[in-house]
Automatic annotation (TrEMBL):
Residues 37-48, 56-65 have a biased composition (Basic and acidic residues). PROSITE patterns: BHLH. This is Max-like protein X. One of its GO terms (molecular function) is RNA polymerase II cis-regulatory region sequence-specific DNA binding. It comes from Malurus elegans (Red-winged fairywren). Keywords: Activator, Coiled coil, Cytoplasm, DNA-binding, Nucleus, Phosphoprotein, Repressor, Transcription, Transcription regulation. Residues 50-108 form the BHLH domain. Pfam families: HLH. Residues 105-132 form a coiled coil. One of its GO terms (biological process) is positive regulation of transcription by RNA polymerase II. Residues 1-65 are annotated as: Disordered.
Amino acid sequence: PALFMENARKGSIVSRANSIGSTSASSVPNTDDEDSDYHQEPYKESYKDRRRRAHTQAEQKRRDAIKKGYDDLQAIVPTCEQQDFSISSQKLSKAIILQKTIDYIQFLHKEKKKQEEEVSTLRKDVMALKIMKVNYEQIVKAHQDSPNEGKNQVSDEVKFNVFQGIMDSLFQSFNASISVTSFQELSACVFSWIEEHCKPQTLRDVVIGVLHQVKNCGR
């Protein structure tokens, strides 16, 4: 009985010791596992941080786009490259680039309008030439169809006599009206003579008179 009681007492002590050890071990934090979990878990970004980062990226993208736009303008607009010698080593400001771009666009508008006017004038010239071509072809065709009509045409001598008579009549009035005392007086007299003696009705009367003279001489 004494030995049994001693063994039972020792077993109770060992059991309590194991119990206390296991309880103590379970109460101690597992630092190795927690350290491992801490390093493996990623940092969770907050909503404000995400918004701030997105705003920063958008702002940087906008600034880059504006800078690229100004760089493209400076490369495209010829006047942006024509800088003064005093500022040739300096970078053009955004205000100068915009102003030079506006000036160049206005210049292009003027050039476009000028070219459109030139094209319109050339089109009118082409139309006039086409009309002249058609008329000339009709005259040639009429002459080919009626070759004998040329025999009754006015000779070059008669044409010259008519022209000479018109010029003689005009020169008489011109010589009587023009003064050559000074260039200023000459200019004034010429304009005055043109207004008085070169009116359509006056020229018509002169031509009719010359034709009558040529006709009477031909008889």
